[in-house]
Design goal:
364 residues; alpha/beta; 53% helix
Length: 364
């Protein structure tokens, strides 16, 4: 065989091997390159508020069990507040047991871990949850005196004590004065007791009326939030808290509860496609309570969606997201700047220049 022919056969063999390798690579069974975990991409302030809901239920807590992987995301907030946290499967009794699994397999063991006077806190993602499934979750929750909270539009909390117990207002207020907790609360725009109680939605009895009609419909906040602000008789005040502070806290909590209902009205209008009306509701809510967690969660989702649209080249959709953010929060310099960039890419030179100029003014 001549040298030239040998080279030819070597090249042919190499090419055949490359074709086989290419086919094996592309035809092999593969896992998704990226599995989206809603818990890991949850608006961070929701985690902070959920943690403080648990601590408000049990303000004298010293220990907490992070009972599953998702609970570990909340660990820093408990530790910053001075609570010693244990990993999943740790044996013993704890003051607070934190649960995030969508369907905990062993409530009996979790209840036992809370001892005779502990508290349970279940942070759940209800994005794709039907009303029937949600009814099942509430029925499974082992604390008879369960409290229902909505830190975000689709991230809800069931909390409660092992045995029914009143909580002193002074002890609740003390939580917000702890040195280690200050930065977490400030970053979450949740530095007062009334900011947390904006998310309080009621009890088992107030939730029950929603379990009628089409039980296969997806859960929505408006199905479970009562028209009237729920009473909170499990908080008691004493001589340690001035009457003026008690009255002020009650007024602020009620006011922020009313604002929360306006946010939910905006969410309802948005799902109906009435975007301008929805923005009007959200903007009004932001004006009266810029710390509302559900509203900030909405703005966060708009920002995430806008970034996603930009990455795939859908600049017009991204611009709509930023425009909505600006409509809710007109002082948002970052959103204004991104809107200007979208207008530049869309060839709207005049709008782009105006947006960039406004962003500079806001940044100053």
């Amino acid at each position: 065989m001549t040298k030239k022919r040998k080279i030819f056969w070597w090249l042919a063999a190499a090419l055949a091997l490359a074709v086989v390798a290419f086919a094996v690579y592309w035809l092999r069974p593969r896992k998704p390159a990226f599995a989206f975990d809603p818990a890991e991409h949850r608006y961070a302030a929701v985690n902070v508020v959920a943690s403080y809901i648990a601590m408000l239920e049990k303000p004298d807590a010293k220990t907490a069990l992070m009972s599953d992987k998702g609970s570990e995301l909340l660990r820093p907030y408990f530790e910053h507040a001075g609570i010693e946290c244990s990993a999943p499967d740790t044996k013993g009794e704890f003051d607070i047991v934190v649960v995030t699994a969508s369907a905990p397999r062993d409530w009996k063991s979790l209840l036992a871990a809370a001892g005779s006077d502990g508290a349970l806190m279940w942070l759940m993602d209800v994005r794709e949850t039907t009303i029937a499934a949600f009814r099942g979750r509430i029925a499974a929750f082992p604390c008879p005196d369960a409290h229902f909270w909505m830190p975000g539009e689709t991230d809800w909390v069931l909390s409660g004590r092992v045995k029914k117990s009143e909580v002193r207002l002074a002890d609740m207020l003390e939580l917000f004065a702890r040195d280690g907790a200050f930065m977490d609360l400030a970053n979450a725009s949740c530095d007062t007791l009334s900011d947390v109680f904006a998310s309080f939605a009621g009890y088992r009895a107030t939730v029950e009326p929603a379990f009628v009609g089409n039980l296969e419909a997806k859960v929505r906040p408006e199905f479970f939030v009562t028209q009237d602000v729920p009473d909170i008789p499990w908080i008691v005040s004493d001589e340690e808290v001035d009457e003026d502070i008690v009255a002020q806290n009650a007024r602020e909590s009620r006011s922020k509860q009313i604002v929360r209902r306006t946010v939910i009205e905006g969410n309802m209008l948005s799902r109906e496609g009435k975007i301008d009306a929805a923005i009007g509701k959200w903007a009004g809510a932001y004006l009266h309570n810029p710390h509302d967690t559900m509203l900030l969660d909405r703005i966060y989702r708009l920002a995430v969606n806008a970034r996603t649209f930009q990455k795939v080249g859908n600049i017009k959709a991204a611009a709509n997201c930023y425009d909505t953010m600006i409509g809710i929060r007109p002082t948002d310099a970052a959103a204004m700047s991104e809107y200007g960039e979208c207008m530049r890419l869309l060839g709207e030179k005049e709008l782009s220049e105006k947006a960039f100029q406004r962003a500079k003014e806001l940044a100053r």
